[in-house]
Design brief:
Strand order of the largest sheet: 2-3-4-1-5-8-7-6
Protein name: VOC family protein
InterPro entries: Anthracycline_SecMetBiosynth, Glyas_Bleomycin-R_OHBP_Dase, Glyas_Fos-R_dOase_dom, VOC_core
Oligomer: single chain
Number of helices: 4
Number of domains: 2
Radius of gyration: 17 Å
Shape: globular
Largest sheet: 8 strands, mixed
Helix content: 10-25%
Organism: Streptomyces mesophilus
Length: about 260
């Protein structure tokens, strides 16, 4: 039985110009350690660990025209079937499903507005070994301009149960796995409608969140490491968040639980 239910975010990686610089940045920020990186046949993919458990990876950009970005991957029991559903729902494949040795099968896709996300069909590598805890992945959301179009796409492809947070966070819809009771308690990700104040040139995109013990400290450390704060720490009903940019330009967010 697969470790991750269909549609659950199961992995994240950053595409960077300089992986060694990325190791120094994230090693200092999150206390991550890294392996030596897979061989050239796997793109010298460097896996990150927290307390010995896999939490993410850093990959070198093969082409300077590629974006410097954090990618999120959604679990699928059949990457080829999911790819067909993506096309049928109005999306497109950026990278067709491809086996990655014994580790699994991956693909990159774009939704109808162009937001890029990954698919992962686990093999020997099923995904995160640690998530939802400090210094590990905890959430993802897609930021779009056409909410109805995005909702129809993701709820068709991954069979998500959607739940609107209007009145709590306007323009936000959470996603729960198929068969779960929709709502924040079962949510694994979500969709946010970009408002009129967002620059028109900013395309639809995913944002990857990492849990931290102290949101303000994470912002301070990011600045000290040569990164920057895109959106300063702010309280929301579910915690304290900030949007940060690493020292190579990859955007990510941090979340401090209110209980902390």
């Amino acid at each position: 039985m697969a470790a991750y239910t269909e549609g659950v975010p199961c992995w994240a990686d950053a595409l960077l110009p300089d992986v060694e610089a990325g190791k120094r940045f994230y090693g200092e920020l999150f206390g991550w350690t890294f392996d030596e990186g897979a061989g050239p046949e796997y793109g010298r993919y460097a896996q990150a660990y927290k307390e010995g458990k896999a939490v993410a990876a850093l990959a070198p950009k093969r082409d300077g025209r590629m974006p410097t970005v954090w990618n999120v991957y959604f679990a699928t029991p059949d990457a080829f079937a999911s790819a067909r559903k993506i096309r049928d729902a109005g999306g497109r494949l950026v990278t067709e499903p491809m086996p990655v040795g014994p580790f699994g099968t991956m693909a990159l896709a774009a939704d109808p507005e162009g937001a890029v996300f990954g698919l992962w069909q686990g093999g020997t590598h099923e995904g995160f070994e640690k998530a939802g805890e400090p210094d590990s992945f905890c959430w993802t959301e897609v930021k779009v301009r056409d909410a109805a179009r995005a909702d129809a796409f993701y709820e068709d492809v991954f069979r998500f149960e959607g739940f609107d947070l209007d009145g709590v966070i306007d323009g936000f819809r959470t996603w729960s796995p198929a068969g779960a009771e929709a709502g924040p308690d079962t949510a694994v990700g979500g969709r946010e409608l970009m408002g009129e104040g967002v620059p028109a040139e900013l395309p639809a995109h995913f944002l990857v969140y990492f849990n931290v013990d102290d949101c303000d400290e994470a912002a301070r450390v990011t600045r000290g490491l040569g990164g920057r704060v895109q959106s300063p720490p702010v309280d929301i009903p579910y915690g304290r968040i900030a949007t940060l940019v690493d020292n190579q330009g990859a955007v990510f967010a941090v979340l401090q639980d209110h209980a902390d």
